[in-house]
Amino acid sequence: HDPRHRAFDFWLGIWDVRPAGAPDSAPPSENVITLEHEGCVVVEHWKSIGGGTGTSFNVFDPTRGKWFQTWVDSSGGMHEYRGNPDAKGHMIFSEGETPGGPGQPSRVPTRLSFFRLGPDKVRQLSEISLDAGNTWTVNYDLIYVRRK
Question: Taking the complete model, does pTM exceed 0.70, yes or no?
Fold first, then answer.
Protein backbone atom coordinates (compact mmCIF):
# COMPACT_ATOMS: atom_id res chain seq x y z
CA HIS A 1 0.00 0.00 0.00
CA ASP A 2 3.06 2.25 -0.08
CA PRO A 3 2.66 4.63 -3.07
CA ARG A 4 6.43 4.53 -3.67
CA HIS A 5 5.89 1.01 -5.09
CA ARG A 6 3.84 2.56 -7.94
CA ALA A 7 6.52 5.04 -9.13
CA PHE A 8 7.54 2.89 -12.11
CA ASP A 9 4.04 1.90 -13.24
CA PHE A 10 4.29 4.37 -16.16
CA TRP A 11 6.57 1.79 -17.84
CA LEU A 12 3.96 -1.01 -17.75
CA GLY A 13 2.65 -2.16 -21.12
CA ILE A 14 3.67 -3.55 -24.49
CA TRP A 15 6.11 -1.30 -26.32
CA ASP A 16 7.71 -0.90 -29.73
CA VAL A 17 11.28 0.28 -29.12
CA ARG A 18 13.62 2.04 -31.54
CA PRO A 19 16.85 4.00 -31.16
CA ALA A 20 16.22 7.73 -30.65
CA GLY A 21 16.06 9.42 -34.04
CA ALA A 22 15.13 6.25 -35.93
CA PRO A 23 12.16 6.62 -38.29
CA ASP A 24 8.82 5.14 -37.22
CA SER A 25 9.10 2.83 -40.23
CA ALA A 26 12.23 1.12 -38.79
CA PRO A 27 11.52 -2.37 -37.42
CA PRO A 28 11.09 -2.15 -33.64
CA SER A 29 12.33 -4.30 -30.83
CA GLU A 30 9.63 -5.41 -28.39
CA ASN A 31 9.49 -4.84 -24.66
CA VAL A 32 6.68 -6.21 -22.51
CA ILE A 33 6.59 -4.74 -19.01
CA THR A 34 4.37 -6.48 -16.46
CA LEU A 35 3.50 -6.10 -12.81
CA GLU A 36 4.04 -9.40 -11.01
CA HIS A 37 4.30 -10.97 -7.55
CA GLU A 38 1.16 -9.34 -6.17
CA GLY A 39 2.10 -5.96 -7.66
CA CYS A 40 5.50 -5.76 -5.99
CA VAL A 41 7.82 -6.37 -8.97
CA VAL A 42 7.96 -4.65 -12.35
CA VAL A 43 9.25 -7.30 -14.77
CA GLU A 44 10.70 -6.52 -18.20
CA HIS A 45 10.65 -9.05 -21.08
CA TRP A 46 12.89 -7.76 -23.91
CA LYS A 47 13.20 -9.12 -27.49
CA SER A 48 15.52 -7.24 -29.84
CA ILE A 49 15.10 -7.19 -33.59
CA GLY A 50 18.51 -8.88 -33.72
CA GLY A 51 17.25 -11.87 -31.72
CA GLY A 52 18.69 -11.10 -28.29
CA THR A 53 16.50 -11.41 -25.22
CA GLY A 54 16.65 -10.10 -21.69
CA THR A 55 14.70 -9.72 -18.48
CA SER A 56 14.86 -7.19 -15.68
CA PHE A 57 13.38 -7.24 -12.21
CA ASN A 58 12.57 -3.83 -10.74
CA VAL A 59 11.57 -3.43 -7.12
CA PHE A 60 11.30 -0.71 -4.50
CA ASP A 61 13.02 -1.69 -1.25
CA PRO A 62 11.43 0.32 1.59
CA THR A 63 14.19 -0.73 4.01
CA ARG A 64 16.72 1.19 1.89
CA GLY A 65 14.32 3.73 0.36
CA LYS A 66 15.49 2.96 -3.19
CA TRP A 67 14.49 1.26 -6.39
CA PHE A 68 16.66 -1.59 -7.67
CA GLN A 69 16.90 -3.09 -11.16
CA THR A 70 18.69 -6.33 -12.02
CA TRP A 71 18.98 -7.12 -15.74
CA VAL A 72 20.06 -10.46 -17.23
CA ASP A 73 20.23 -11.37 -20.91
CA SER A 74 20.91 -14.02 -23.53
CA SER A 75 24.57 -13.00 -23.78
CA GLY A 76 25.12 -13.79 -20.09
CA GLY A 77 25.23 -10.10 -19.17
CA MET A 78 24.19 -8.89 -15.74
CA HIS A 79 23.48 -5.23 -14.97
CA GLU A 80 22.62 -3.78 -11.57
CA TYR A 81 21.14 -0.35 -10.85
CA ARG A 82 19.94 1.69 -7.86
CA GLY A 83 17.99 4.94 -7.80
CA ASN A 84 14.69 6.74 -7.36
CA PRO A 85 12.23 8.88 -9.26
CA ASP A 86 13.15 12.54 -9.63
CA ALA A 87 10.81 15.46 -8.84
CA LYS A 88 9.14 15.12 -12.28
CA GLY A 89 8.41 11.39 -11.83
CA HIS A 90 11.14 10.13 -14.18
CA MET A 91 12.88 6.96 -12.91
CA ILE A 92 16.58 7.71 -12.48
CA PHE A 93 18.90 4.83 -11.63
CA SER A 94 21.86 7.07 -10.81
CA GLU A 95 24.06 4.27 -9.47
CA GLY A 96 24.82 1.21 -11.52
CA GLU A 97 27.35 -0.99 -13.16
CA THR A 98 27.39 -3.09 -16.30
CA PRO A 99 29.88 -5.44 -17.98
CA GLY A 100 32.61 -3.54 -19.80
CA GLY A 101 33.24 -3.95 -23.49
CA PRO A 102 36.51 -4.74 -25.25
CA GLY A 103 39.34 -2.63 -23.84
CA GLN A 104 37.22 -1.47 -20.89
CA PRO A 105 37.29 -2.48 -17.22
CA SER A 106 35.35 -5.66 -16.39
CA ARG A 107 32.59 -3.56 -14.73
CA VAL A 108 31.71 -0.03 -15.84
CA PRO A 109 29.82 2.66 -13.86
CA THR A 110 26.46 3.15 -15.58
CA ARG A 111 23.44 5.42 -15.18
CA LEU A 112 20.03 4.40 -16.51
CA SER A 113 17.14 6.88 -16.83
CA PHE A 114 13.52 6.45 -17.91
CA PHE A 115 11.84 9.71 -18.94
CA ARG A 116 8.05 9.93 -19.10
CA LEU A 117 7.33 11.64 -22.42
CA GLY A 118 3.57 11.18 -22.16
CA PRO A 119 1.11 8.35 -21.47
CA ASP A 120 2.28 6.38 -24.51
CA LYS A 121 5.95 7.33 -24.86
CA VAL A 122 9.06 6.72 -22.74
CA ARG A 123 12.73 7.48 -23.34
CA GLN A 124 15.36 5.12 -21.91
CA LEU A 125 18.87 6.58 -21.72
CA SER A 126 21.96 4.61 -20.69
CA GLU A 127 25.21 6.44 -19.93
CA ILE A 128 28.60 4.96 -19.04
CA SER A 129 31.73 6.37 -17.46
CA LEU A 130 35.21 5.09 -18.22
CA ASP A 131 36.86 7.43 -15.69
CA ALA A 132 35.15 6.48 -12.41
CA GLY A 133 32.19 8.82 -12.90
CA ASN A 134 34.01 12.04 -13.83
CA THR A 135 32.56 12.14 -17.36
CA TRP A 136 29.66 10.29 -18.97
CA THR A 137 28.92 9.23 -22.55
CA VAL A 138 25.75 7.84 -24.09
CA ASN A 139 25.74 4.06 -24.20
CA TYR A 140 22.29 3.87 -25.86
CA ASP A 141 19.21 6.05 -26.23
CA LEU A 142 15.86 4.36 -26.91
CA ILE A 143 12.32 5.60 -27.53
CA TYR A 144 9.39 3.44 -26.43
CA VAL A 145 6.00 3.86 -28.10
CA ARG A 146 3.09 1.99 -26.58
CA ARG A 147 1.84 -0.67 -28.97
CA LYS A 148 -1.74 -0.13 -30.10
Answer: yes
